[in-house]
Amino acid sequence: KKEKTLALIKPDAVTKMGSIIEAILDSGFVISKAKMVLLLRTEAMDFYNEHHSKSFFSDLISFMTSGPIVAMEVVGDEAVSSWRKLLGPTNSSIARSELPQSIRARFGTDGTKNAAHGSDSIASAARELEFFFPSSGGRAPKNTA
Ligand code: CMP
C-alpha cells in the first residue's frame, strides 16, 4: 500500500545528504517534497514533545537545533515501515553491528547523533508531515536562508 512518511536528515549528516538521498532513491522511494530548515528550540520541543520527559530530551533538542536539517516527504510502498527499516536501529553504534548497510550505520555516530529520522506510524507521519509541510494556513519552520 502506498504511504507517505517524513524523513529528516539531522545536523550531523547534512554534509552527507547527497549519499543519503541517493540511498533513498535507490530503494525505490519518491521524494515528493524537500526543504532545508533551521529549527528554533520551541519548534524542536514541539516536534519531539512525546519525548519531553526522557533523560535525553535536552541533549536531543540541543542537537536538533545545532544546525540545518533537511525535511523530506518520502512516498512509496509501505513507506513508513520501509523507510525505518532502511534507517536501521536508533543507535548508530548498534546499527553498525546489526545492519552495516543501514543509513544510521553508514552515516550516524551514536544514540543521539544518528543521521536521520523516520516517522514511527501512519499517524505520526501525518502529524510530522503537517509540521514541516503545513497544508494551509499553518506556520512552518522557516527556511535556513
Ligand atoms: P529519532 O528517530 O529522531 O527519535 C527520537 C530521537 O531521540 C532519536 O532519533 C535519537 O536521536 C534520540 N534518542 C533516542 N533514544 C535515545 C537515547 N537513549 N539516548 C539519547 N538519545 C536518544
From TrEMBL:
GO terms of biological process kind: CTP biosynthetic process; GTP biosynthetic process; UTP biosynthetic process
Keywords: ATP-binding, Cell projection, Cilium, Cytoplasm, Cytoskeleton, Flagellum, Hydrolase, Kinase, Nucleotide-binding, Nucleus, Transferase
Family per similarity comment: Belongs to the NDK family.
Active site location: H117
Main subcellular location: cytoplasm
Parent-protein residues present: 90 to 234 of 376
One Gene Ontology cellular component annotation held by this UniProt entry: spindle
Gene Ontology MF terms in the entry: 3'-5' exonuclease activity; ATP binding; nucleoside diphosphate kinase activity
Assembly and binders: Component of sperm flagellar doublet microtubules. Component of the gamma-tubulin ring complex.
Organism lineage: Eukaryota, Metazoa, Chordata, Craniata, Vertebrata
Its job: Possesses an intrinsic kinase activity. Displays 3'-5' exonuclease activity with a preference for single-stranded DNA. Does not seem to have nucleoside diphosphate kinase activity. Functional component of the gamma-tubulin ring complex, implicated in the regulation of the microtubule-nucleating activity of the gamma-tubulin ring complex in centrosomes, in a kinase activity-dependent manner. Part of the dynein-decorated doublet microtubules (DMTs) in cilia axoneme, which is required for motile cilia beating.
Residues reported in the UniProt entry to bind ATP: K10, F56, R84, T90, R104, N114
Cellular localisation: Cytoplasm, Cytoskeleton, Flagellum axoneme; Cytoplasm, Cytoskeleton, Microtubule organizing center, Centrosome; Cytoplasm, Cytoskeleton, Spindle; Nucleus
Protein name: Nucleoside diphosphate kinase homolog 7
